[in-house]
């Protein structure tokens, strides 16, 4: 077995989905967002697990992601949320994938492609209400309706918008976006364009605005076991399906004052045991996304952390779990090796530790083991970074 691997509990994914459904407004449907390889959990396996729970709609960002789901047996509705291009459309159309349309010229091209193949193209309209990213604005409605009237092969399945501040508890801005969205749809309806499905809620809005559930909600973060922010934790009970683990590959006892790692920024404070684990920043460990400070307090924390680093003091560093105890990282994280200070805890080569590896940053070549119905199976990784979905059962304990 590898010295570094990830375990994904699909039973936890199913549990989270059921939790979402339990507070879903009657008549509303869940569209499971499995973009970014299912937020790092594995889009295909997550989608299959959710299908078993009755989920019939999925969303991704790219056509490539959508085709991957189709190729592995996901036959229900798949919506591509992000912008796409003519080079991808033919294959998407033939696979029955819904495309998001956010530019007028796309309607002309899609109509031509559909007419040539004598098929219908299912689309959803993206409405720009304040995200500032993609979508039709209200002053484009007349041109939009005119384009659609000349596109008999295009079928509108829905229209949606995306809230920019739903996770920040900025209710005023979110309400403004919702009002703009409803106004857009009303004008379309008055001009003869009917929209069967309306959806505006992401995970944050789903929790805070049940009155905005409409026909569908797009849920990704919650299904993956995370909350949009800490302020939502009391609204739902979730389980984290992700667990990254590594083996100890080297152990040594060292005296007090032993320098560790690059630049010797860490020195042991007592006689202790140092252990090396097979993970580093090449695996995505110790690599954090850069966030914009959310206010003065947040900015102050960042400044203090960086000042402390000048004095070789490590603040806020994530810790390793070993035998149920939190263990600190000794020094800098290396490319593929990291040192931990286990103190007086007995350890030996081959022992397992749990590491705080961000799922969206984890190297896709790290082996994944999936748990379902208390049984583990492995998804083997093959050339070019693509996944082979032939299962291989593994001898893992159900911890």
Your description of this structure?
- The chain is of the alpha/beta class and about 400 residues long.
- The protein has two domains: about 10-230, Alanine racemase (TIM Barrel, Alpha-Beta Barrel); about 240-365, Lyase, Ornithine Decarboxylase, Chain A, domain 1.
- Helices cover about 30% and strands about 25% of the residues.
- It has ten helices and 20 strands.
- It is elongated and about 80 Å long.
- Mean pLDDT is about 90; it is low at about 380-399.
Secondary structure: elements and pairs:
Layout: E1 4-9, H1 10-22, E2 29-33, H2 35-39, H3 43-52, E3 57-60, H4 63-71, E4 77-80, H5 86-94, E5 98-101, H6 104-117, E6 121-126, H7 141-149, E7 154-160, H8 171-190, E8 197-199, H9 203-208, E9 216-219, E10 242-254, E11 259-260, E12 266-267, E13 272-277, H10 296-310, E14 320-322, E15 325-329, E16 338-343, E17 352-355, E18 368-372, E19 375-381, E20 387-393
Parallel strand pairs: 1-18, 2-3, 2-9, 3-4, 4-5, 5-6, 6-7, 7-8
Antiparallel strand pairs: 1-10, 10-13, 10-17, 11-12, 13-16, 14-15, 15-16, 18-19, 19-20
Structural category is: alpha/beta
CATH class of the largest domain: Alpha Beta
Number of helices: 10
**Low-confidence runs of at least 5 consecutive residues:** 380-399
Shape by Cα distribution: elongated
Strand-residue proportion: 25-35%
Domain count: the total is 2
CATH homologous superfamily designation of the largest domain: Alanine racemase
Largest sheet: 10 strands, mixed
Number of strands: 20
Oligomeric status:
single chain
Average predicted confidence as pLDDT: 90
SSE string, helices as H and strands as E: EHEHHEHEHEHEHEHEHEEEEEHEEEEEEE
The radius of gyration computed from the alpha-carbon positions, rounded to a whole number of angstroms, is 24 Å
Instruction: Please estimate the helix content.
Output: 25-40%
CATH architecture name of the largest domain? Alpha-Beta Barrel
Could you please say which CATH topology of the largest domain applies here? Answer: TIM Barrel
Distance between the termini: 17 Å
